[in-house]
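Dear support,

I submitted the protein below through the web form. The confirmation email said the job was done, but the results page showed an empty box. After a refresh the structure appeared. I'm attaching both so you can tell me whether what I see now is the final result or a partial one.
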Amino acid sequence: MSQPHPPAPRPRRSRRARADRETKGTVVVALLANMVIAVAKTVAGVVAPSPALMAEAAHSVADSLNEVFLLFSLSRSRRRADVRHPFGYGKERFFWSLLAAVGIFVTGGCFSFYQGLHTWLSPPSEAENFGMVYLVLIVALLAEGTSLARALFQLHRQARARGCTLAQQIRRAEDPTVRTVLAEDSTAVFGVLLAAGGVAGHQITGSPTWEAVAALAIGALLIGVAVRLGHEARSLLVGQAVDPRLQQQAHTLLAEQKEIDTVTTLLTMRLGADSALLAARVDLQEGLDSEEVEEVCVRIKRQLREECPAFDQVFLDIVDADSNDRARARTLERDLDRVVAEQDGSDE
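What the results page shows now:
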C-alpha cells in the first residue's frame, strides 16, 4: 500500500483557521448568553419562586458547561499529529460533543424532571411573582434568540459556499460543535416558551401543576436532544464514513482514470470536522511497470486532494482483481448510487 500524500497546502490550513475562529465566536456568544441567563433564571426562580424557571435555570447551566466543553475541543482538535496519534486529534471534537450530550442529559434533563415531579407531588404554597418571572423569560428569549441567530448565520454561510439549502447543511454539517450549539439554542428557545406557557397556566388557574407539567416537558425535551446528539457523536467516534456524495465523487474520479481498470473497494472515515481518510483497492491496467505505477498513484492522490480536499489521508492499494473483486466493485457502485439517490430524495 502506498504512502499517504503530503500535507495539504497552507491556503487550506488558513481556511481551517478561519472556520475555527468563526466556530469559536459562535460558541463564545452562546456561552456568554447562557451564563447571564443561568444567573438570572436561578435568582428569579428562587425569589419568585417558580418551578418552571428553576427547570430552565438547570437547562442554562447545562448549556454553559457544554459550551466550555466545546471551546476546549476546538483547541485540542487542532494539535499536530504525532507518533501516538498519526491521524491527528480531529476526533477530539466528537468526544467533547459526546460529553456535552451527557451534560445536557444529566444536568439539564434529569434536574428538570426532578423539579417537575417535586412540584407535582408537593405543590408550593407561597405566592409567585409572575412579573419577575415573565421579565426573566423575555430577557432569556432575546438572548437565546441572538445566540441561535449567530449559529444559523454560520450554517447559512456554509450552505451558500456548498451550494445547498440551510436545511441540507444542518443535516450534513461536518462540525459537530456548531450542530451542538444549534441544538442547544433551538432547545433553549423552545424551553423558554414551554416555561412561559406553564407560568401562564399557573397564573390563570392558580394551580402550580401547570408549571410542573412545563418542567417535565422541558426535561423530556432535553433528554431527547441529548440522546440525539449522543447518537451522532457515537457514530462519529466509532468511524463514520464521509457524506455519500463525497464518496461517489471520489469513486467516480478513480473509475475515470485511464490507468484504473476496477475500483474494488472504497473505504472512508471522518477524522475530524473537516478531514477524512480514504483507502481504495484498485486494479490497474496491464502493462505498467513499477515506476509508472508509482507515478500514477502520486498523480491520482494529487487529483483527489484537489477535487476532494476533505481527504487528508489517501491510501491506494494495488491489487489483481478476480471475478469476486469485480462483483464487489459492481455492488459498491450500485450501493453508492442507491444511497445518494435516497439522500437526494430526503433533501427534496
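Response: this is the final, complete result; the empty box was a page-load delay. The domain at 244-347 is CATH 3.30.70.1350 (Alpha-Beta Plaits).
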